[in-house]
Amino acid sequence: MSLTGMQIFKYLPGAKKAEGTNCKLCGCPTCMAFALKLAKKQVDIQTCPHVPQELKEKFSEASKTQQHEIKLSSTLVTGGENVMYRHDKTFVNRTVIAISLDSNDKDFDKKLEQISNYCIERIGEEFKVDAIYLTGTNLETAAQKAEAKGLAVISTLTPYTIVKGDDLDALEQNSQSALNQGGKDIILELGYNGCLQQTVQELTLIRRAAIIKRHEPLTYPVMVKIPSDTDILKITAAASVLLCRYANIIVLPYFNAALLSAIFTLRQNIYTNPQKPLQVEAKIYEFNEPDKNAPVLLTTNFALTYFAVAAELESLPFGSYLVVTPSDGMSVLTAWSADKFTAELVARSVENFGLAQKVNTRKIIIPGLLSHMQDELQEAMPQWEIVTGTIEACQIPEFLKQG
């Protein structure tokens, strides 16, 4: 693990009240300031003439790369992880989803077109297949076609070295051999024999060796290729588990739209920053060109809530407004319990957004989960009629039809 400023400081003269305390030769006003900057890698450890050898060794060990980052294309990178669990901090680069494609396949162009055209949207994000894992002998031509479609290419032609191993011991041994031969950019391809439990155990050991022990042969992104003879349900299960623990690249044996949809949904959830909830901009959203008499609904800026409500409002044959209040990306009940959704905040948002100038109606529909706030909101906004709406977004169309 990285050294903190306080862990570094205890080795310096300032902590021991020794000769050289706060000497400023490092360019910092105090030893503590130097320690804090060194922890953030904002200064060179050599600038302090009083750093003991023990600290130099510990700092060198702590500064080793935990997992190397490899560029698969100009816009796609993999690896670079520095924690075992996403809640410790966050995962960095999303697992790359690649599809295996034989460059000698007579239907290569058709399959490539199908893969490159695939796109789904979820919670405001678009998802496409990241890369193609090329096999066969017509690699150069196939790679050019794939890259022209905006897909990254994984093959023997790529500038990095793909090190293969059927198990952890073989993978480590082959990786060490590649390092001894001067290899630098390496992707570890861990063999998958259908035993998901064994593969997950090996992936976990690799990630632990990289993140905690910083064992150089295993500090590289890991790729797992699912065999083509695997049942589709087993492919889905394997890809889902490998995405969570701890494949950097998953190679699917063939294109399947339903499979990709499930994987991308899971990946989006796993790779969001747990310290920064998904949220949308707080403002008034308009759906289907509403007029001044269109209904007005209100919710928080939690992305999942917004897109669930937005999908229902977009399906209506008439226009509507949705007032989204700032709530740090919290859902309605969470925001209410954390004082991020108060009557005063809602009233201020409605006024600042200029809702009164947009509509003739003076009725605002609030989420059903916040029915207990109706009287409080009515008191804070006497010029508006506060109406309690539905608990589930799917109930909104029927509720609005009833008046």
Keywords:
5-stranded mixed β-sheet; TIM Barrel; 16 helices; flat; 3-methyladenine DNA Glycosylase II, Chain A, domain 3; 403 residues; alpha/beta; single chain; Rossmann fold; 37% helix
Describe the structure.
The protein is built from 16 helices and 16 strands. It is an alpha/beta fold and 403 residues long. It folds into 3 domains: 5-62, Orthogonal Bundle (3-methyladenine DNA Glycosylase II, Chain A, domain 3); 69-270, TIM Barrel (Alpha-Beta Barrel); 284-401, Rossmann fold (3-Layer(aba) Sandwich). Helix 9 packs parallel to helix 10 (257-270) and helix 13 (343-352) packs across helix 15 (374-380).
Topology:
Elements: H1 5-9, H2 13-16, H3 31-39, H4 53-62, E1 69-71, E2 77-79, E3 96-102, H5 108-117, E4 120-122, E5 125-127, E6 131-135, H6 139-148, E7 152-154, E8 161-165, H7 168-180, E9 186-190, H8 196-211, E10 222-225, H9 232-244, E11 249-252, H10 257-270, E12 284-287, E13 296-300, H11 303-314, E14 320-325, H12 332-337, H13 343-352, H14 355-358, E15 363-366, H15 374-380, E16 385-388, H16 396-401
Parallel strand pairs: 3-6, 3-11, 6-7, 8-9, 9-10, 10-11, 13-14, 13-15, 15-16
Antiparallel strand pairs: 1-2, 4-5, 12-14
Tell me, what's the shape? flat
CATH architecture of the largest domain: Alpha-Beta Barrel
Give a short account of the largest sheet. Answer: 7 strands, parallel
Tell me how many strands there are: 16
Radius of gyration: 28 Å
Strand order of the largest sheet: 7-6-3-11-10-9-8
Number of helices: 16
CATH superfamily of the largest domain: Dihydropteroate synthase-like
- For the record, what CATH class of the largest domain applies? Alpha Beta
**How far apart are the termini?**
60 Å
Low-confidence stretches: none
Strand percentage: 15-25%
Percentage of residues assigned to helices: 25-40%
Stated plainly, the CATH topology of the largest domain is called TIM Barrel
- Count the domains: 3
Structural class designation: alpha/beta
Mean pLDDT, all residues? 92
Classify the oligomer.
Answer: single chain
